[in-house]
Design a protein that fits this description.
Layout lengths: L10 H17 L4 H21 L5 H8 L2
Helix pairs in contact: 1-2, 1-3, 2-3
Protein backbone atom coordinates (compact mmCIF):
# COMPACT_ATOMS: atom_id res chain seq x y z
CA UNK A 1 0.00 0.00 0.00
CA UNK A 2 1.33 3.39 -0.97
CA UNK A 3 1.37 6.04 1.74
CA UNK A 4 -0.11 9.45 0.94
CA UNK A 5 1.59 12.56 2.17
CA UNK A 6 -0.38 15.10 4.22
CA UNK A 7 -1.69 17.87 2.03
CA UNK A 8 -3.27 21.10 3.15
CA UNK A 9 -6.77 21.81 2.00
CA UNK A 10 -7.09 24.54 -0.57
CA UNK A 11 -9.21 27.69 -0.72
CA UNK A 12 -11.52 25.76 -3.05
CA UNK A 13 -12.04 23.12 -0.33
CA UNK A 14 -12.79 25.76 2.31
CA UNK A 15 -15.32 27.48 0.04
CA UNK A 16 -17.06 24.18 -0.76
CA UNK A 17 -17.24 23.32 2.95
CA UNK A 18 -18.62 26.76 3.83
CA UNK A 19 -21.33 26.37 1.17
CA UNK A 20 -22.41 23.06 2.67
CA UNK A 21 -22.60 24.57 6.16
CA UNK A 22 -24.39 27.62 4.77
CA UNK A 23 -27.16 25.48 3.30
CA UNK A 24 -27.74 23.91 6.73
CA UNK A 25 -27.53 27.29 8.47
CA UNK A 26 -30.17 28.68 6.10
CA UNK A 27 -32.44 25.65 6.52
CA UNK A 28 -32.18 25.78 10.31
CA UNK A 29 -32.44 29.51 10.87
CA UNK A 30 -35.89 29.17 12.45
CA UNK A 31 -34.78 26.36 14.75
CA UNK A 32 -32.54 27.39 17.65
CA UNK A 33 -31.24 23.87 18.23
CA UNK A 34 -30.24 23.34 14.60
CA UNK A 35 -28.67 26.78 14.21
CA UNK A 36 -26.72 26.30 17.45
CA UNK A 37 -25.49 22.90 16.30
CA UNK A 38 -24.45 24.20 12.87
CA UNK A 39 -22.59 27.09 14.51
CA UNK A 40 -20.77 24.80 16.92
CA UNK A 41 -19.71 22.34 14.22
CA UNK A 42 -18.67 25.15 11.86
CA UNK A 43 -16.51 26.65 14.62
CA UNK A 44 -14.88 23.25 15.18
CA UNK A 45 -14.15 22.98 11.45
CA UNK A 46 -12.73 26.52 11.45
CA UNK A 47 -10.36 25.54 14.28
CA UNK A 48 -9.32 22.41 12.38
CA UNK A 49 -8.71 24.35 9.16
CA UNK A 50 -6.69 26.99 11.03
CA UNK A 51 -4.48 24.30 12.55
CA UNK A 52 -3.96 22.86 9.05
CA UNK A 53 -3.23 26.20 7.38
CA UNK A 54 -1.80 29.22 9.25
CA UNK A 55 -3.20 31.54 6.55
CA UNK A 56 -6.75 30.32 7.05
CA UNK A 57 -9.09 33.13 8.14
CA UNK A 58 -11.53 31.64 10.67
CA UNK A 59 -13.81 34.68 10.78
CA UNK A 60 -14.06 34.87 7.00
CA UNK A 61 -15.06 31.18 6.95
CA UNK A 62 -17.70 31.66 9.68
CA UNK A 63 -19.06 34.72 7.84
CA UNK A 64 -19.36 32.61 4.67
CA UNK A 65 -21.13 29.90 6.66
CA UNK A 66 -23.57 32.50 7.94
CA UNK A 67 -23.20 31.93 11.67
Amino acid sequence: MQRQENKMMTRKDYIATAKIFNSYADAGQDNILISSLVKSIAEDFADLFASDNPNFDEQKFLDAVGV
